[in-house]
Specification:
Shape: globular
CATH superfamily: Superoxide dismutase, copper/zinc binding domain
Helix content: 10-25%
CATH architecture: Sandwich
Number of domains: 1
Structural class: mainly beta
Number of helices: 2
Strand order of the largest sheet: 1-2-3-6-5-4-7-8
Distance between the termini: 36 Å
Number of strands: 9
CATH class: Mainly Beta
Radius of gyration: 24 Å
Length: about 160
């Protein structure tokens, strides 16, 4: 650990300099992860549809996702589906608004309205994707197995304490 001579001699600021070096080393060892949780929100709306899908795709909902460290917790609700929900997933698109592959499963109520929940451990690369708006949630239903509702997880402004 850090040590300094306590003999009373401060020759050219040696003791004071050692103390500052020790403090700097301790400060560098403290993790920066002391930041508060980050919040992301999504408005669930129908996926892009064509005329043939109008009879099967409908509904709306909302989600909140909270990132604490590397743990992402998702909670949300949906309503107005034309058939019961079957699955929900977090997907990664190359950019916001462009579909991509499923990367995580979520838990969804099996009804035309209900809840979406999940807790996911993210890698540093996935945290970057989340912060850059590349992750979205998509809900499938019996009559729309390729997607009924979707919503992009967008960062929310963090409140600063005064």
């Amino acid at each position: 650990m850090c040590s300094a001579s306590l003999s009373g001699e401060r020759g050219a600021g040696g003791f004071m300099r050692s103390r500052w070096v020790c403090l700097a080393l301790l400060a560098a060892a403290v993790p920066v992860s002391g930041q508060g949780p980050k919040t992301f929100k999504a408005r669930l709306s129908p996926v892009p549809i064509d005329l043939t899908m109008q009879a099967t795709v409908a509904g709306k909902g909302s989600l909140t996702a909270t990132l604490v460290g590397a743990k992402l917790s998702v909670t949300g609700t949906f309503e107005g589906l034309r058939s019961p929900a079957t699955t929900a997933h977090v997907h990664k698109g190359p950019v916001a608004g462009v579909r991509g592959p499923s990367v995580f499963d979520l838990v969804v109520s099996k009804g035309t309205s209900g809840n979406i929940t999940g807790s996911i451990d993210l890698t540093p690369a996935q945290i970057t994707d989340l912060e850059k708006g590349r992750l979205y949630v998509q809900l499938q239903s019996e009559k729309a197995p390729d997607g009924n509702l979707w919503g992009w997880l967008m960062p929310q402004a963090q409140e600063t304490k005064r």
